[in-house]
Specification:
The protein is of the alpha+beta class and about 525 residues long. The chain contains 13 helices and 23 strands. The two termini are about 35 Å apart. The structure holds flavin-adenine dinucleotide. Flavin-adenine dinucleotide binds next to helix 1, strand 13, strand 18 and helix 8.
Amino acid sequence: MTDRQVHDVVVIGGGVVGVTLARTLARYHLDVVLLERDAEVGFGVSKANSGIIHSGIHADPDTVKGSLEWPGNVGWLSLRDELGFGFAQVGELLVALSEDELPTIDRLHAQGERKGVPGLERWDQQRVRRHQPNLSREVIAALWAPTAGVINPYEAVLLIAESATRNGVEVATGEPVTAIDPPDPADQDAPIVLRTPMRTLASRYVVNAAGLYADEVARMAGVGTFTISGRKGEEYLLDKRLAGLVTSIIFPCPTATSKGTLVTPTFDGTIMVGPTAEATDDKHDTATTPEGAAEVFEAAGRLVPGIDERDVIAEFAGVRAVADTDDFVLGTTHRRGFLNAAGIQSPGLTAAPAIADHLLEVLREEGLELIERADFAPRLEPPVRFGVLPTEEQAALVHRDPRFAQLVCRCELVTEAEIVDAIDRGARTLDGVKFRTRAGMGRCQGGSCTWRCIELLADRRGQAITEVTKRGGGSWIVCDRDDVDAAPQPPPSPVAAPPAAAPTDEVTPMSRDRGEVSRHADHP
Ligand SMILES: Cc1cc2nc3c(=O)[nH]c(=O)nc-3n(C[C@H](O)[C@H](O)[C@H](O)COP(=O)(O)OP(=O)(O)OC[C@H]3O[C@@H](n4cnc5c(N)ncnc54)[C@H](O)[C@@H]3O)c2cc1C
């Protein structure tokens, strides 16, 4: 099908960068389309990271990423106020474990001040201990940066995309860009023509925010001047019983390629440890490994000795998109109208609002007319979080809608009404429900609520249970018994099957292929 209209801007990729840009563009009288390959927005690296809005001190201000880190931090405050996702400025402590590390603290202190980051303080050992009594006794000093925060990155991306949609952007999921036509030599001003499996689109401007695949998309457009390689990071989430172990983000002194292994109090009260930083040739490699776990727990234990691998309730890995310049690749290309937002490695989550503002200015300079819309609605009614409300408010909600009395996720106290609302707001998959409501994110990792979430998704979306997927594509959860019976059976194994293992509570390190995984083997 050919979409005959010429759009003003097509954004390729619905990660934090793409959706934030799309919402920024929604403030103006423009026809904007966002094309996302996955079943929902935010299922790329934007959901698989440490969830930190960095204080602003870390990246070198002489790089593009460094220049956008602090303005990005500031941008998140207004986004949070308008959209109501989970974001708390808990501050960070960058700690020195030896005299050798003190110059690094001083360098980052000076770098932060040069960038205009407020509130930085050098703390001595006693002050560090008063603030974080569970830190290692080896910590001799620290840099305190109060502007660092923790965010629910997937929730933020989903609400930013919802706000963009409500303000007129077409957010098309499950629609990958598969080809971009070469420019028309006879007509310099001709729009750029893009192809997806569903349609052909024409647009005056195209922004490539395709994350790990931005080099491939740039090549499609004939401007493949850079390559993206992967740098994997494994993360481990610990049980809520450890809530309060640390109340600010704890950073070690950085290495050449990474900020090191952090201990982070997440917005929802768990503790997260990680990430690793390992070069990988496989952009799909999101498996956690015993080696990664050993590295993370050894490094985390040096900062906070009470941390123990037996407290892990979930683990995942994300792959950073690292351009060969080791910096963000941002702005115009030699193809008129085609812009890149590529190589968005860390601190890409932090910088996203500033990346969007920067690209807006580049588009303006390139001739995009920006007329503000009087009817732009910046605010969004945030979803109800029943479990954190006072009893009187919970009672009022139950009175209004009895589905608030039906608890679906017992670990995170998520009700049927919240799950139905998430589906009505756009959840298409089990992960879409989980990231919007937290159903399945608690201690049992979906053991008790997965089935009910599948039923509600199928019912609300008019699907068969067997059509519901975990994250789109072929990630079905339930299959029809007839299909299983009809499937060809593997030949009998010459090796005798081991006896069934006795039920055990013992935690077994597991490695799965993608996304957040449970440590409990019976998780679907
Ligand atoms: C382990 C780890 C920890 C991190 N921690 C932090 C942190 O604490 N703070 C921080 O600031 N940053 C952090 N980062 C970095 C941050 O997560 C990324 O910089 C940011 O999420 C990048 O967003 P993006 O939109 O560029 O990419 P993505 O989220 O990957 O989005 C790109 C999208 O493009 C889509 N796409 C690809 N090809 C096509 C196509 N052909 N057509 C349509 N769509 C396509 C993909 O499906 C994807 O959804 C971390 C990264 C990792 C890996």
